[in-house]
Amino acid sequence: MGPANKSQLSPSTFWLMGIPGLEHLHVWIGIPFCSMYMVALMGNVTILAVVRAERTLHEPMFLFLCMLSVTDLVLSTSTLPRMLCLFWMAAHDITFDACLAQMFFIHSFTAMESGFFLAMAIDRYVAICDPLRHATILTHSRIAVMGAVVVLRGVGFFSPHPVLLKQLPYCRTRIIAHTYCEFMAVVKLACLEIGATKRYSLGVAFGIGSCDCFFIAISYVLILRAVFRLPSREASLKALGTCGSHVCVIVVFYSTAGFTFLTHRFGHNVAPRTHILIANMYLLVPPFLNPIVYGVRTKKIRDYVLNTLKVKGS
């Protein structure tokens, strides 16, 4: 076997294409992407700092919010800086090991994001439907267990992905038609026909996403039923406002993730640029929106930040 064949079977690097057909706009596309990343970075770090500093915020909602913020930071940082290098410096090459590492972080932390959305929906359900027992049901130990289960689920189900891809031979093109390393985009470059591996990946993603989405929907249906039974119209509107903003973030996450899943499974006629742009949205938009929806709109966090700024400014 010659040197060329060896390099094909064991590639040292892949080549990220970016967004097919929009290469001439990469520099401009990078500007809003970078802006969203900066907001996500500052917003999530602020939430973590505020909750850590203010002991009165050590409640279930804010503890789950911290877990979500850490997930958002890892998810966005594992994709955005590398994506901006591609857009602004034409750095298309990515080493094989870096590609596998990025893939693991993207898929496992996306699953964690979904799990923490479910945990926060459960917290809202208990807080609104059974407020007197909220503190006794969601104790710190139970919150820790829920967080650990979400993390272990994400790591456990998606650890096989890089292991499987590491063992495959690659004799086709090294070009990944995407802005980041995604399992389905990389596995298509393998020499072997591994339908079972593809079905495992899609099955895990569908199973986790659909189960979480189903239980989130049930939680919010029960919440809405409880809200409409409140005697005070003002209390009902306040509860609806809080739930409404949460639902918006959740809908953006699951609709874009669902579109990406269905495109891999059925949407062979969807334009690659459309698929890739929407695939970027479910990695970029939730980390950008979560600090705004869960942080800025939460009175306790907003008041703490404003009071801190006033003290420093005086």
From TrEMBL:
Is Glycosyltransferase tagged as a keyword? Answer: no
Instruction: Report the InterPro entries cross-referenced here.
Output: GPCR_Rhodpsn, GPCR_Rhodpsn_7TM, Olfact_rcpt, OR51/52/56-like
Q: Which UniProt keywords apply?
A: G-protein coupled receptor, Membrane, Olfaction, Receptor, Sensory transduction, Transducer, Transmembrane, Transmembrane helix
Gene3D superfamilies documented for this protein = Rhodopsin 7-helix transmembrane proteins (1.20.1070.10)
Membrane association type: Multi-pass membrane protein
**Pfam families with a match to the protein in the record:** 7tm_4
Q: Which CDD domains match?
A: 7tmA_OR52R_52L-like
Which biological processes are named by the entry's GO terms? G protein-coupled receptor signaling pathway; sensory perception of smell
User: What GO terms are given for molecular function?
Assistant: G protein-coupled receptor activity; olfactory receptor activity
The G-protein coupled receptors family 1 profile domain extends over 43-294
According to its UniProt record, where is this protein located? Membrane
A GO CC annotation recorded here is: plasma membrane
Chain ranges passing through the membrane:
25-50, 62-80, 100-122, 143-160, 202-227, 239-262, 274-296
Q: What is its main location?
A: membrane
Free-text function comment from the UniProt entry: Odorant receptor.
Q: What is this protein called?
A: Olfactory receptor 601
Q: Which organism was this protein described from?
A: Mus musculus (Mouse)
